[in-house]
Amino acid sequence: MSELSVNHLLGIKYLNKDDIKLIFETADHFKEVINRPIKKVPSLRDITIANLFFENSTRTKLSFELAEKRLSADVINFSASQSSVKKGETLIDTVNNILSMKVDMVVMRHPNPGASVFLSQHVNARIINAGDGAHEHPTQALLDSYSIRERLGEVKGKKVVIVGDILHSRVALSNIFALQLQGAEVMVCGPKTLLPKYIDKLGVKVETNLLKALNWCDVANMLRVQNERMEVNYFPSTREYTQQYGVTMDVLNSLKKEITIMHPGPINRGVEITSEVADSNQAIILNQVENGVAVRMAIIYLLASKIKQ
Ligand code: NCD
């Protein structure tokens, strides 16, 4: 297969196994490119991409921008806090105004679940979802799986536990879909209050005891507690959360085997993982960041090649 089955990247749930394979093979090529002295290719010289961020972001925004520039695309950036959205403009009007400047692709982060699907139905551009509320964050899940494949050889058959705030996490949902599609076994672990009621329908194992979960897995993906999406208290205190669900070197050393630690960032050092764990050889957190650029280059390149046809 040489092209994606989709015209937009709205969520992992719209992809198939071959799409992921193609994205990873293309990312392998771009990973080699970004490690060369000249890190740029001319592939997207005639493409203009708008990065629309209606919600805060550091690494995802930088990673997309870098990926676009490494492909030689023209890039425009927009953040909601500095825009006319604050003056009451609708999402469609904002985006149509930007598109009338002849933009080919839109990378959007938005607080509302489904915002990028909505956009893809109303505007004429390729859309990449860079996170829609607590729903999906497909590029994060793809770079996470790519990093597992790099560290452990393959994703198929691996046991992956996602630890923490599953309820409010788009990273969790996209990872569950992506890992299952590739034949990994998935477990979620966290306090009951941070597990969604529909969790049984997702076909994952559920565990509330961190040590049991870590002893089961090959990889633990540690999530940040999404305080900004909580309108009530889901656990008594951060200290108690850390005591029950925080990973320390002592916890890692007490396990029967060496596991791989992942984190999508931003890390709350000392809450979900300690600094020693984050900076240890078992953690692949910075590899995830590096791979993020290559994987996003692959996605942008593959979607752009469909515009040119
Ligand atoms: C995540 C996000 O924004 O969904 N971060 C990221 O994209 N790197 C996770 C988080 O905010 O905890």
From TrEMBL:
Record key words, sorted: Pyrimidine biosynthesis, Transferase
Keyword presence, Transferase: yes
Domain Aspartate/ornithine carbamoyltransferase carbamoyl-P binding: 8-150
GO terms for biological process, alphabetical: 'de novo' pyrimidine nucleobase biosynthetic process; 'de novo' UMP biosynthetic process; amino acid metabolic process
Residue ranges of domain Aspartate/ornithine carbamoyltransferase Asp/Orn-binding in the record: 156-302
Keyword rRNA processing attributed: no
Reactions listed under catalytic activity: carbamoyl phosphate + L-aspartate = N-carbamoyl-L-aspartate + phosphate + H(+)
Binding residue positions for carbamoyl phosphate: 59-60, 109, 137, 140, 265-266
Binding site for L-aspartate: 87, 170, 224
One annotated GO molecular function: aspartate carbamoyltransferase activity
EC number from the UniProt entry: 2.1.3.2
Protein role: Catalyzes the condensation of carbamoyl phosphate and aspartate to form carbamoyl aspartate and inorganic phosphate, the committed step in the de novo pyrimidine nucleotide biosynthesis pathway.
Family: Belongs to the aspartate/ornithine carbamoyltransferase superfamily. ATCase family.
Name of the protein described by the UniProt record: Aspartate carbamoyltransferase
Taxonomic placement: Bacteria, Pseudomonadati, Bacteroidota, Flavobacteriia, Flavobacteriales
Gene assigned in the entry: pyrB
